[in-house]
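Per your request, structure below.
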């Protein structure tokens, strides 16, 4: 038996890191003065562990709603004698100036800050502490780090800074990269236009990789400063000019045989137009070019080989066969070529091992992979195209597709467009067609990102997509590891009185499925979340609209499931005026068979709770139950459930029957007539997890009709579904209780006859358990 793709377990390092972070005080920390989190004095951690702790902490804060950020966490790494940090990756708004300052004494080699909008110029000063050791630095999307708030001095208190309005920001002019002599890789994507990129970068002597995405470059000549070394230059969404292109081409002439990556792609419109001549100059000039991205460029003239002149045979990556003229000049195929959102991706022969585009699944997946982290606007489009592939065609790289969409949803939790397209793609990628290829671990990752989306966005499209995706899973089994969380989110969706009809229907269906076939402690926990009240509110709303639709029926079904052997939830149903709604629904929708069955099933659960039965023992309710004995709705189900409710009530004896009308004996006679009218071979629309509520009605003489109903129920179930119910009856001691029925003089002969047949059926099953008839 082969393991499914993506089924590798988490490493021991990953598991222990997450455990320690969730249990800091039980593992490596204690609470010091003023409840300050402190590292234990006997703990010394190398960089491999510290890096993992900090980076996993960032991921948990970002992705896991159950994970509580720890105040003072970064302070644990303030002393390099006990903790060593070398490679740190922090993202999003939870990172503060004080967090970076806390690790200021560490000898960081790599610091990647992504979209950290709460960092101010205070953190620029902290950066200078790492200047002796820093090799790789990313400040992508951290534009506010280059501002002082309100023109305040750097030494001002951080709390004060945070109170100042953002509009009073002044650019930070004192910062310089002077002394960052080891810095090789720098990402300044999104640098504000008020900051002079040339002046900022000039002091850096040894850059080999520079990302200036979206940065205005009125003068480009300064880039030649790194002509001897530069191996990667990213100018995504930079306004190109002839001067800039000439400077870039010059880099290739002068660089010392360094493999070069050039990215001049764009997403927005530009005055600059790419021509065959310019593209040829780039390819000829950059002799060591191994990677090029020209995505988003409109070609001013045609630079593709006419179809009838193209090289024959299968698609080739040989430059001499290239369908794009300028690339015929290449000495060898490119490792990567970005052609996304261009017409060039559609040609036959492309001289590159990896291509982004929209022609086929491979190009689209490459685009998602390459652009997700720093270009969500492109990743969003590519995921949309993957959605069409999964929906209309067939996704042949399922594991890769799922992993890429999951990564995009994790990375861009706050990007609504990614959440909308990503959740829609997940719906098609997790449906039945692809299910057999997916591991438990992978499907759990899908559930996690779907729940994150539901948590973050109350917007209709995201909520609908997420709910629909959850419907692709086995419920409740596959959702049990997030049971409380998913129920809370669904109840929150159902809270508004006026909700989108389709979301309401899907959410109620999921709620119903989640409380079906689960342990009682799960039902009790969900009951405490307000499940019963929410369902009754939905029913009340549908009653006001005089509408009996799926939402109405699912809501009653969900109440039937959640009250099964759960007295607290039954009590909640009564406390929330559930009986009044039952009578109103019965009156408003007299012909809705499924509705009646669900309502009576629920009341059967309530009637099983002895302490609650007096609340059902009113002339009005007993008359209603008694009349429903004659119902032919849904086969025997409504009549059977009504008789079940009455069986428990009459079982309390004549003394409890404190009313003159209807008479107890008349009701019991009517019950007997109803039972005798049922076909014992009826197939059932009911599911018993335990026979305990039925078995307690057997060994008694106070209400023989209740005993008769219970015996009939057992006879029907073990006859029609022997493989399911014979073992259950034997396991729960039902045979001994049936023998007592035979011994009681008050038992009807018909009851005894059925009891013998039940025992006989179970005996036969034990002898021949290979039951095949269904």
């Amino acid at each position: 038996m082969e393991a499914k793709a993506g089924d590798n377990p988490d490493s021991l390092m990953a598991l222990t890191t997450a455990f320690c972070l969730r249990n800091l005080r039980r593992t490596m920390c204690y609470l010091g003065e003023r409840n300050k989190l402190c590292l234990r004095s006997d703990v010394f951690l190398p960089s491999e562990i510290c890096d993992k702790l900090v980076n996993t902490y960032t991921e948990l804060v970002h992705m896991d709603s159950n994970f509580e950020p720890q105040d003072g966490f970064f302070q644990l790494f303030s002393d390099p004698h006990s903790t060593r940090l070398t490679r740190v990756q922090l993202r999003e708004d939870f990172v503060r100036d004080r967090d970076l300052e806390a690790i200021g004494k560490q000898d960081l080699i790599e610091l990647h800050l992504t979209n950290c909008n709460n960092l101010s110029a205070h953190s620029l000063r902290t950066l200078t502490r790492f200047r002796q050791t820093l090799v790789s630095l990313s400040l992508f999307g951290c534009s506010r780090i280059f501002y002082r708030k309100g023109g305040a001095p750097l030494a001002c208190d951080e709390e004060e800074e945070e109170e100042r309005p953002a509009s009073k920001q002044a650019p930070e002019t004192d910062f310089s990269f002077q002394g960052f002599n080891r810095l090789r890789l720098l990402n300044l994507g999104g640098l504000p236009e008020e900051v002079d990129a040339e002046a900022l970068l000039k002091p850096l002597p040894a850059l080999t990789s520079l990302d200036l995405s979206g940065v205005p470059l009125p003068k480009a000549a300064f880039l030649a400063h790194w002509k001897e070394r530069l191996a990667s230059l990213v100018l995504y969404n930079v306004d190109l000019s002839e001067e800039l292109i000439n400077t870039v081409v010059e880099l290739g002439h002068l660089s010392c045989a360094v493999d070069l990556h050039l990215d001049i792609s764009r997403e927005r419109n530009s005055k600059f137009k790419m021509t065959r001549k310019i593209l040829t100059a780039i390819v000829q000039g950059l002799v060591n070019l191994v990677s090029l991205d020209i995505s988003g460029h409109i070609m001013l003239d045609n630079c593709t080989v006419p179809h009838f002149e193209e090289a024959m045979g299968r698609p080739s990556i040989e430059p001499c066969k290239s369908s794009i003229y300028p690339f015929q000049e290449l000495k060898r195929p490119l490792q990567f070529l970005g052609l996304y959102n261009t017409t060039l991706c559609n040609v036959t022969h492309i001289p590159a091992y990896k291509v982004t585009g929209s022609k086929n699944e491979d190009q689209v997946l490459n685009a998602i992979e390459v652009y997700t982290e720093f270009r969500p606007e492109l990743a969003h489009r590519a995921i949309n195209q993957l959605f069409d592939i999964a929906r209309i065609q067939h996704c042949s790289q399922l594991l890769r597709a799922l992993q890429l969409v999951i990564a995009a949803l994790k990375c861009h939790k706050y990007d609504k467009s990614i959440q909308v397209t990503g959740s829609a793609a997940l719906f098609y990628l997790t449906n039945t067609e692809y299910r057999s290829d997916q591991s438990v671990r992978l499907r759990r990752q899908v559930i996690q990102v779907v729940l994150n989306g539901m948590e973050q966005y109350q917007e209709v499209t995201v909520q609908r997509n997420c709910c629909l995706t959850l419907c692709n899973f086995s419920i409740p089994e596959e959702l049990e590891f997030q049971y409380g969380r998913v129920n809370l989110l669904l109840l929150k969706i159902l809270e508004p009185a006026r909700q989108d009809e389709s979301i309401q229907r899907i959410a109620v269906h999921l709620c119903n499925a989640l409380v079906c076939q689960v342990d009682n402690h799960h039902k009790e926990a969900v009951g405490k979340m307000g499940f019963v009240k929410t369902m009754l509110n939905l029913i009340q709303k549908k009653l006001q609209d005089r509408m009996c639709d799926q939402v109405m029926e699912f809501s009653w079904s969900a109440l039937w499931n959640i009250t099964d052997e759960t007295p607290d939830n039954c009590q909640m149903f009564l406390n929330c005026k559930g009986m009044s709604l039952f009578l109103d629904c019965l009156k408003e929708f007299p012909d809705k068979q499924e509705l009646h069955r669900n309502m009576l099933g629920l009341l059967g659960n309530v009637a099983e709770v002895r302490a609650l039965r007096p609340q059902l023992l009113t002339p009005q309710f007993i008359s209603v139950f008694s009349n429903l004995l004659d119902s032919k709705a849904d086969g025997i189900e409504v009549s059977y459930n009504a008789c079940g409710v009455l069986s428990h009530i009459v079982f309390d004896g004549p003394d409890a029957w404190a009313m003159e009308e209807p008479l107890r004996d008349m009701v019991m006679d009517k019950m007997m007539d109803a039972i005798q009218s049922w076909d014992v071979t009826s197939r059932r629309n009911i599911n018993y997890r335990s026979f305990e509520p039925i078995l307690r009605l057997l060994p008694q003489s106070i209400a023989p009709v209740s005993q008769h109903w219970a015996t009939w129920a057992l006879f029907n179930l073990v006859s029609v579904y022997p493989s399911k119910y014979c073992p259950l009856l034997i396991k729960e001691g039902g045979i001994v209780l049936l023998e007592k029925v035979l011994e009681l003089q008050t038992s009807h002969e018909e009851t005894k006859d059925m009891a013998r047949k039940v025992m006989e059926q179970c005996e036969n099953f034990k002898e021949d358990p290979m039951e095949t008839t269904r």
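Residues 701 and 746 are 6 Å apart (CA to CA).

Regards,
D.
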